[in-house]
Amino acid sequence: MVNEVYPNIFLNEIPLPKNPLKSINSYIVKSESRNLVIDTGFNTPECQNELMRGLEELNLDLKKTELLITHMHTDHSGLAHVLKGLGVPTVYFSKIDGEISNQTSQRDSFFKSLNRLLGFEGENPIKFGKEFGTKRTEPLEYNPLNEGNQLIIGDYCLEVVEIPGHTPGHIGLYEKKHKLFFGGDHILDEITPNITFWGFEQDILGTYFKSLEKVHEYEIAYLFTAHRKIISDHRRRISELLLHHEERLKEIGAILRDGRKTPVEMAASMHWDLSHKKWADFPSSQKWFASGEALSHLEHLVHTGVVERSIEGEVLLYGLK
């Protein structure tokens, strides 16, 4: 069922079966001459059926409907090519995430090499199940967006805001007049966005902190999140997220007092709010996400001069200076 969460703004909650995220909030901004869909769900029959059901319920003309993808993850971008094939004329993406999304062979090669660096032995955690959807093999044609670009939909002037961290090219939309913010996975209620490793040349966790501080300055009455509840007090939630990561960094420092660790060993030693209490029981995909998040925190400590990194064989090792 589609719910109107603000005048002419609708939330289409799309279930994500067998996924701890449970569902994704796809938003639809509607007007007489132009509509905008924000994020899609996985490339699965279940997600496609729910997405299309919502669009049909609102009687949208797809030829007057555009799609904006907040970031490259497949629960947000998985059905972009389907909508484009059904007549949606324009797909918007940030230039950075759009390029990463389309560079499938390079991305897969990066993940395979990262798999070894993390310290996984005898398993391949990047082989996700069917619940993550069918991978797109053809490049997606999209219009790149940058900071300050505007999309006018009816009474709403949606301004693009670059908020890297969850991904290198994550974007949001700010509507200043009505104090609305479409934030994708940048700020979530009840759960914390996964901040993973995106290369040694950048401190992606530090980048995420700066993006949080950037959004903290905006006047926002409703922050439309991609998962869980809409947020009415974004500054409170930002403070909670910053505290969460501060505690994570302290936890990692305490674990490293026992000696150097690979990212996988670090992740296995950390506390995670999952139903699986033992690391051995974690699904492969969750081991991957946890190790990537551990690595982003370790790299932040490297960039801030607290921890040193070394590579032995093909495996990363981190220890206190």
Summarize the structure.
With 321 residues, this protein is an alpha/beta fold. The chain has helices spanning 45-57, 74-77, 80-85, 95-102, 104-118, 204-216, 234-256, 263-269, 284-303; strands spanning 2-6, 9-15, 23-29, 35-38, 65-68, 91-94, 143-145, 150-153, 156-162, 171-175, 180-184, 222-225, 307-312, 315-320.
Describe this structure in words.
The chain is α/β, with parallel strands linked by helices and 321 residues long. The chain has a single domain, classed as Ribonuclease Z/Hydroxyacylglutathione hydrolase-like (Metallo-beta-lactamase, Chain A, 4-Layer Sandwich), CATH 3.60.15.10. Helices cover 34% and strands 22% of the residues. A 7-stranded mixed beta sheet has the order 1-2-3-4-5-6-7. A hairpin with a 5-residue loop joins β3 and β4. α8 packs across α9.
Features:
globular, Metallo-beta-lactamase, Chain A, alpha/beta, seven-stranded mixed beta sheet, about 325 residues, five-stranded mixed beta sheet, about 35% helix
Share of helix among residues? 25-40%
Order of adjacent strands in the largest pleated sheet: 1-2-3-4-5-6-7
Can you count the beta strands?
14
Spatial extent as radius of gyration? 20 Å
Query: What is the typical, i.e. mean, pLDDT?
Result: 93
- CATH homologous superfamily - what is it? Ribonuclease Z/Hydroxyacylglutathione hydrolase-like
Unreliable spans are none
Task: Identify the overall geometry.
Answer: globular
Number of H/I helices: 9
Label the structural class: alpha/beta
CATH architecture: 4-Layer Sandwich
H/E series: EEEEHEHHEHHEEEEEHEHHHEE
Through-space gap between termini: 54 Å
Return the domain count. 1
Q: Which fold name corresponds to the CATH topology?
A: Metallo-beta-lactamase, Chain A
Give the biggest beta sheet.
7 strands, mixed
Instruction: Output the CATH class name.
Output: Alpha Beta
Strand content range: 15-25%
